[in-house]
From TrEMBL:
<dbReference type="InterPro" id="IPR000515">
    <property type="entry name" value="MetI-like"/>
</dbReference>
<dbReference type="Pfam" id="PF00528">
    <property type="entry name" value="BPD_transp_1"/>
</dbReference>
<dbReference type="InterPro" id="IPR035906">
    <property type="entry name" value="MetI-like_sf"/>
</dbReference>
<feature type="transmembrane region" description="Helical">
    <location>
        <begin position="137"/>
        <end position="158"/>
    </location>
</feature>
<feature type="transmembrane region" description="Helical">
    <location>
        <begin position="19"/>
        <end position="37"/>
    </location>
</feature>
<feature type="transmembrane region" description="Helical">
    <location>
        <begin position="234"/>
        <end position="253"/>
    </location>
</feature>
<protein>
    <submittedName>
        <fullName>ABC transporter permease subunit</fullName>
    </submittedName>
</protein>
<feature type="transmembrane region" description="Helical">
    <location>
        <begin position="83"/>
        <end position="102"/>
    </location>
</feature>
<feature type="domain" description="ABC transmembrane type-1">
    <location>
        <begin position="72"/>
        <end position="250"/>
    </location>
</feature>
<feature type="transmembrane region" description="Helical">
    <location>
        <begin position="109"/>
        <end position="131"/>
    </location>
</feature>
<feature type="transmembrane region" description="Helical">
    <location>
        <begin position="44"/>
        <end position="63"/>
    </location>
</feature>
<comment type="similarity">
    <text>Belongs to the binding-protein-dependent transport system permease family.</text>
</comment>
<keyword id="KW-1133">Transmembrane helix</keyword>
<keyword id="KW-0813">Transport</keyword>
<keyword id="KW-0472">Membrane</keyword>
<feature type="transmembrane region" description="Helical">
    <location>
        <begin position="179"/>
        <end position="203"/>
    </location>
</feature>
<keyword id="KW-1003">Cell membrane</keyword>
Length: 274
């Protein structure tokens, strides 16, 4: 048992190391983005697009203020709460729709309504319903992110291999066993990309709702920077929001995906890496 546990621990550490090593490609992309940013600064000047180093300096100044960490934490917590609710509702609804044609037909017009109404309209309605509270931000994030997860999970469930389902049924596997061993494995390939998109939408909508509802957070700080015409500070707050998004994605979504898809790495031929 001890040897098995040690092997499992080493396997997890190896996957964590491989995941961290793959971050070099992301750093190269960020370097390219910074180069394009610098070119835009040299073309349009400080007022339109401050230099990356000036924005970084503004960000460090903001980070030195303990109150700024509280604002960033407020936005992150609101976005994650709305995202968690959207992930649960979208996954449950998408799974039901993928396995039931009647549920899919019932859900389509609801999805059309949710996707057709712009987020800013939901923000206005949420402000009327909940006022300038966390409920406004969380509700708006929930409405904006749920359809993304729903569509991804439903598509995964609909495209599952029904031949494998029939084979498992022939060997005596019940509905729950078939769902956990076959259905969810296939759905995961559609679920996690949808969760990544939904998480990005959650942060964008949360900041926008905070700005319009005047509920503090990064959105409130952006409103103050806009009033002061401080473009560098505004961009610094944008970078802080993106940093919060990346932190949540790479500490929550990707590790869970790595654990859930261990079988996919095991099924690859030797030497084939993602």
């Amino acid at each position: 048992m001890t040897t098995a546990r040690a092997g499992a621990l080493l396997d997890r550490l190896g996957r964590v190391g491989q995941f961290l090593w793959s971050g070099w490609a992301g750093l190269a992309g960020l370097a390219l983005f910074a180069a394009l940013w610098q070119a835009g600064h040299e073309r349009y000047g400080d007022f339109i697009l401050p230099a990356p180093l000036a924005t970084l300096a503004a960000g460090l100044t903001i980070a030195a203020d303990p109150a700024a960490w509280e604002l960033a934490g407020q936005t992150t917590l609101r976005a994650v709460e709305g995202f968690a609710l959207a992930a649960a509702a979208g996954a449950a609804g998408g799974l039901a729709a993928g396995y039931s044609a009647a549920t899919m037909r019932l859900a389509r017009p609801i999805l059309t309504v949710l996707l057709g109404v712009p987020p800013i309209a939901w923000i206005v309605l949420a402000m009327i319903w909940f006022g300038s509270t966390d409920g406004t931000i969380i509700t708006t994030v929930l409405v904006a992110a749920t359809p993304v997860v729903f569509v991804g999970v439903a598509e995964g469930a609909v495209t599952r291999d029904r031949g494998l389902d029939d084979m498992a049924r022939a060997f005596g596997a019940g509905p729950l066993a078939r769902l956990t061993t076959l259905g969810l494995r296939h759905v995961a390939a559609f679920l996690f990309p949808a969760l990544t998109v939904a998480l990005g939408s959650a942060f964008k909508v949360a900041v926008m709702a905070e700005l319009l509802a005047n509920t503090g957070g990064i959105g409130g700080a952006l409103a103050a920077a806009r009033a002061n015409l401080d473009v560098a500070e505004a961009l610094a707050w944008v970078l802080i929001a993106v940093a919060g998004l990346i932190a949540v994605e790479y500490t929550l979504v990707h590790p869970i995906r790595s654990e859930f898809e261990r079988w996919r790495n095991a099924a690859r031929p030797w030497g084939v890496k993602r």
